[in-house]
Amino acid sequence: MAYDLKDVFYLTTSVSTGTSGNIQAATLDLSSYIDPIARKGSKAQGLAIYRVQMSFRQGASVVDKAEDGSTKIAMLAGAGLVAGTVTLADNSAVGNSNDLLIAGYDYYGPATADSTINGFYCTPTAKVPYICVRDNLNIITSTDDAFTAAIDVDVRLECAVVTLDQATLNQLLRTQTV
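The chain above was modelled as a monomer; its predicted structure follows.
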């Protein structure tokens, strides 16, 4: 399961923040990379996510320097969220206490006093990747302070398909349960 450049590939997706006090979601299908069932002669497979990168834009342009909204962005393994139907009871759904959290980012617009603290509050690394055994992942944005225009969040995942022994697979399946 060590990081090996020849096995790494990239997956990309994007999600919009909306403009005010709402939650948006996008789903990335991982079913072609994951096989959590060990069959005779083959081991189970998971998707190792080594790095998550995010960039922000408004339409085809950079984020306006007068923008002062804020949002929390979370990538969750197999949470089963569907755009337009997402509700979150509280921030623990997108916080570090959630076992399904792959990566989380706090974003503050350039005009916000807090814009200097933009950044990941949770992210996998090449040494300790997040091994996903769910067949999809969700990217959600929970907008707190309104944006003048929606922010588009482009996400890039650095990942590789990895084989899993039965003990590791069992542990991952227990922790990645909704």
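Residues 5-175 form a domain with the Jelly Rolls fold (CATH 2.60.120).
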